[in-house]
Amino acid sequence: MRAAVLHETGQDKLEVLDDVEAVGFGPGKVRLRIRATGLCHSDLSAMNGVLPQPAPFVPGHEGAGEVLDVGDGVTGLSAGDRVLVCWLPACGACASCKRGQTHLCLAGFMNAGTPNFKRPGGDVFGFAGTGTFTEEVVVGANCAVPIPDDVPFEIAALIGCGVTTGLGAAINTAQVEAGSSVAVIGCGGVGISAIQGARVQGAAQIIAVDPVAARREAALRFGATEAVSPDEFGDAKQRITAGEGFDYVFEVVGKSVTARTAYENTRRGGTLCVVGAGAMDDNFQVNMFELFFDEKRILPSMYGGGDVLRSYERAIALWRAGRIDLESMITHRVRLDGINDALDQMRTGESLRTCIEL
Fold first, then answer.
1. For 235-254, what is each residue's pLDDT tens digit?
2. What's the chain look like in SS3?
3. Are 104 and 302 in contact (CB under 8 A)?
4. What is the structure's pLDDT at 111?
5. CA distances from residue 282 to 186, 192, 258, 279 in whole angstroms, order as listed
6. Nearest to 116 by CA among 65, 60, 49
7. Is-contact 94 25, C-beta < 8 A?
8. Residues 125, 115: Cα–Cα separation, whole Å
9. Which residues neighbour 15 within 8 Å (Cβ) at sequence distance 6 or greater?
10. Residues in the chain with pLDDT < 50?
């Protein structure tokens, strides 16, 4: 079986191998044939060590495909079913699940420490307990979510992570109000999805902030009312909000410096929504007086901040209704052999989302 493998954390290239075997099939598990997978910035973060992940590992967590086989005790899934991969499945029994915060369930994270694959040289992990840069993968049955027949695999793959994360940040976490002003810092796939979420919510002004001109141009096509470089952000704040700051600012980069910029450009009483996944040693600081005096809400948003199964259904409904554009988010398509070119395109900002077709 073919898969793209990172041998050591810190390497910037993947090796496409044909001697990888998916392991772990048994009761409660399903074997999937991956048909399409998106390249998400979190994959890069795992490769360079920003996000913790044992190596060697197969990156990828934004995938969709078909069920090949189901283990004993699996209900609701059969061979041939079309599914998307949920990298953060809810167990339904932990304290977070019982509170209705299923996106905070840690059961899925526990899978990251169990190898999903093996090679003649030893075990290979799957990123976030999945690993979708491969032809086949074995996952828990709750990681395989059935999708309607009219949803293409590449669209379902995007919904499996980036789209759900960005839409949910605007709709679930920040709960953007109609007529409000919004700024989004970082306009890759997740940032573009946050822009689309703010548009669906009825925001009056949506300012896209990104250093890459192509991404600023793309943001305008997806609903931003204006797009500026980071150097122009302060002027936009002055011009659009009379210096007060925006009602909502979304940080979709995952760095303390951009989080601080987002905080400073949020109005008093406004909302800073932190969407980007950053490093454990990168500390965001506010002083105690401004925290009290400005009364800005600082809201982290993990995986869209809500029940992911409901969020999947909502994304599909909005896509069917033409309220969000998912097809145009896929700017590049490659086969697995082109994965390293796709990584370079994401690093430079050339791509919004690359679909890897298997």
1. 999 999 999 999 999 999 99
2. CCEEEECCCCCCCCEEECCCEECCCCCCEEEEEEEEEECCHHHHHHHCCCCCCCCCEECCCEEEEEEEEECCCCCCCCCCCEEEECCCCCCCCCHHHHCCCHHHCCHHHHHHHCCCEEECCEEEEEHHHCCCCECEEEEEHHHEEECCCCCCHHHHHHHCCHHHHHHHHHHHHCCCCCCCEEEEECCCHHHHHHHHHHHHHCCCEEEEECCCHHHHHHHHHCCCCEEECHHHHHHHHHHHHCCCCEEEEEECCCCHHHHHHHHHCEEEEEEEEECCCCCCCCCCCCCHHHHHHHCCEEEECCCCCCCHHHHHHHHHHHHHCCCCCCHHHEEEEEEHHHHHHHHHHHHHCCCCEEEEEC
3. yes
4. 73
5. 18, 24, 11, 5
6. 60
7. no
8. 4
9. 4, 5, 6, 7
10. none
Q: What is the pLDDT of residues 102-119, one digit of tens each?
A: 989 988 777 777 899 999
Which string of b and e fits 215-239 if b means at least 16 CB within 10 Å? bbebbeebbbbbbbeeeebeebbee
Task: Determine the length of the chain.
Answer: 358
Interstrand relation of 246-251 and 181-185 (parallel, antiparallel or unpaired):
parallel
Q: Which two tokens stand for residue 244?
A: 């007060």
Which residues does 143 contact at the CB level (< 8 Å), separation at least 6? Answer: 30, 85, 86, 87, 89, 108, 129, 130
- φ, ψ (nearest 5 deg) of residue 289: -70, -50
